[in-house]
Amino acid sequence: LLVPIGMIGLTTNITANTSVQMAADPEMRGRVMSLYMMVFAGGTPVGAPIVGWISDTYGARTGFAAGGAISMVAALAVGFMLARVGGLRLKVDLRPGRPHVRFVPREQLATAA
């Protein structure tokens, strides 16, 4: 399984690097890639010892759960920041028939109220 896992890992890394570079403006590409690599490769030396200590102290399941929880919180934070920058608001509709939670443009939310 090491060969297919290695191939999938390389393909994922190359695809992510290419996507980030193609999405960035040419004059900003260096700055964008430096931040991307700082997060992508620079997070491991900080997070790995912490998750390793948690796994060693409390067990592997707790370590995996902690890593997943931290990743989920980070993804939600980035998602909400991007929604805010994009001018979206979270609309919660808890009517008994069909509860909905979705993002809507600020203008649409203001006209509906």
Structure in words:
- The chain has 113 residues and is mostly helical.
- It has a domain of 57 residues.
- It contains 4 helices and 2 strands; from the N terminus they run αααββα.
- Strands 1-2 form a two-stranded antiparallel ribbon.
- Helix 2 runs antiparallel to helix 3.
- The model has no long low-confidence stretch (mean pLDDT 86).
Quick recap of the structure?
By secondary structure, the protein is mainly alpha-helical.
What's the layout of helices and strands?
Blueprint: H1 2-23, H2 29-58, H3 60-85, E1 88-93, E2 100-105, H4 106-112
Helix pairs in contact: 2-3
Features:
2 strands; mainly alpha; 11% strand; two-stranded antiparallel ribbon; extended; 113 residues
Main beta sheet strand tally, sense and closure: 2 strands, antiparallel
Q: What is the helix fraction of residues, given as a range?
A: over 70%
Radius of gyration, CA atoms, in whole angstroms: 20 Å
Distance between the termini: 56 Å
Q: SSE order, as H and E?
A: HHHEEH
Structural class given helices, strands, pairing?
A: mainly alpha
Give the strand content: 5-15%
According to DSSP, the number of beta strands is 2
Number of helices: 4
Poorly predicted segments: none
